[in-house]
Amino acid sequence: MCSQQYTTYDLFCHHSRYEARPSPDPEEQLRNEAAAKRALEFTIGWFARPLYEGDYPAVMRARVGNRLPRFTAVQRMLLKGGCG
User: Fold this and answer.
1) Distance between CA atoms of 49 and 58, rounded to whole angstroms?
2) Fewer Cβ atoms within 10 A, N terminus or C terminus of the chain?
3) Quick check: 17 and 52 in contact, CB under 8 A?
4) 18-44 in b/e burial notation, b at 16+ Cβ within 10 A?
5) How far is residue 23's CA from residue 34's CA, in Å, rounded to a whole number?
6) Which helix (H) or strand (E) holds 2?
7) Which of 21, 11, 18 is nearest to 49 (CA)?
């Protein structure tokens, strides 16, 4: 009889709260909101998106480019859904 052992890990992603700076100018307000969202993606998304979606956030790929490592198809499969 073969027994299997499973290991579980707990991951806690602590991050700062990012809010868009209020602005009376609608265009600036949109830029501020995008910056707040981008900050969140660069902090918690860096760790959480690979576990939930199998890859880094798109905004990170666009900004960091080739300096951000690529996951292989097998790595993406193993990562995706690995949390939850």
Assistant:
1) 10
2) N
3) no
4) bebeeeeeeeeeeebeeeeebbbbbeb
5) 13
6) none
7) 11
pLDDT tens, 41-73? 998 888 888 888 889 999 999 999 999 999 999
Hey, what are 55's tokens?
A: 């890859």
Please report, as a single letter, which amino acid is at residue 13. Answer: C
**Do the beta carbons of residue 35 and residue 60 sit within 8 Å?**
no
Token representation of residue 69: 């490592």
Per-residue pLDDT reduced to its tens digit, 10-44: 666 666 788 899 999 999 999 999 999 999 899 88
Main-chain dihedrals φ then ψ at residue 15, nearest 5 degrees: -145, 160
